[in-house]
Amino acid sequence: MKVLHCESCGMPMHKPSEHGGGIEHNPYCIFCTDEEGNLKTFKEIYEGMVENFFMPQGMSRKEAEAATRDLMSLMPAWKNRF
Fold first, then answer.
1. How many domains does the chain have?
2. pTM of this prediction?
3. Average pLDDT for 53-57
């Protein structure tokens, strides 16, 4: 089974429940979507990644923001944003 990665944040999605809305072919993960599987706004995902992914790794807010921008700039969902 091929592991898909979220096109918004890069998270690996191993099973249908990890896809937005529990929809197996949704290209976005449960963290980047609302309950129906719709992609959240750029701002919501950006803040979520800064506060819940990078800062808990010991980064300052400024470092976490830079790391988030670097990662999101590589994601298909945000390619036109940068």
1. 1
2. 0.89
3. 93
